[in-house]
């Protein structure tokens, strides 16, 4: 029995060192030396004042801004989570219908069938800072009317802020809502 327990204890100790010390240090090192912003949140500034981090979604509810994806945790980065309610849950369906109704009130030129699902459903993390280009474009009429900016100029702004998939094939195209709204405020 002694010959079985000692190798098991050694393997456990080696595994603990690998998994709880060396692996986290390796990931931290990659983030510090290779990752964007050295592994720290990319703070965005407007007029010299910080307005948010590009990696965490924020609430935009004014008609003059692009709205982001809803959050099940009100964009609280300390408590990242989804709602854990499935598509057959009546409470969830009521919440989504409320979001659809609200979106249609603020965007009367949009048909219900044209609303991208991401504008009325929360992400799994509740912190998603990005939208698809289609979800940004569906909001152009509202913003154009609110700010008296030609729609063409807003479509161009969306194109300029669209991030293409990694290596042209991994993941979808996306638009960071905070970047887009800061650029929107800078339009003359």
Structure description:
The protein is mainly α and 188 residues long. It has two domains: 1-40, no CATH class; 41-186, no CATH class. Helix content is 44%, strand content 9%. It has a three-stranded antiparallel β-sheet with strand order 3-5-4. It has a two-stranded antiparallel sheet with strand order 1-2. Strand 1 (43-46) and strand 2 form a beta hairpin. The protein is extended, with a radius of gyration of 22 Å. The N and C termini lie far apart (79 Å).
Order of helices and strands: HEEHEHHHEEH
Unreliable segments (pLDDT under 50, ≥5 consecutive)? none
Work out the oligomeric state of the chains in this entry.
Answer: single chain
Structural class: mainly alpha
Shape: extended
**Helix content, binned percent:** 40-55%
Q: What Rg, in angstroms, do the CA atoms define?
A: 22 Å
Separation, N- and C-terminal Cα atoms = 79 Å
Largest sheet: 3 strands, antiparallel
How much of the residues is beta strand, in percent?
A: 5-15%
- Strands of the widest sheet, in order across it, are 3-5-4
Kindly give the count of domains: 2
How many DSSP helices?
A: 6
Number of strands: 5
Mean pLDDT: 88
């Amino acid at each position: 029995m002694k010959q079985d327990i000692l190798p098991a204890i050694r393997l456990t100790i080696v595994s603990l060192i690998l998994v709880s010390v060396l692996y986290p240090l390796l990931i931290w090192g990659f983030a510090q030396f290779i990752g964007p912003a050295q592994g720290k949140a990319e703070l965005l500034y407007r007029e010299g004042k910080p307005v948010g981090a590009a990696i965490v979604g924020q609430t935009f509810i004014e008609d003059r801004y692009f709205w982001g994806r809803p959050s099940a945790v009100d964009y609280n980065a300390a408590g990242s989570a989804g709602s854990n309610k499935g598509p057959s849950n009546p409470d969830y369906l009521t919440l989504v219908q409320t979001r659809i109704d609200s979106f249609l009130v603020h965007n009367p030129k949009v048909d219900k069938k044209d609303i991208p699902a991401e504008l009325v459903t929360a992400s799994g993390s509740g912190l998603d800072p990005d939208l698809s280009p289609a979800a940004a474009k569906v909001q152009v009429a509202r913003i154009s009317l609110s700010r008296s900016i030609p729609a063409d100029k807003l479509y161009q702004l969306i194109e300029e802020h669209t991030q293409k998939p990694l290596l042209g094939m991994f993941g979808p195209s996306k638009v960071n809502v905070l970047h887009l709204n800061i650029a929107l405020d800078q339009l003359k």
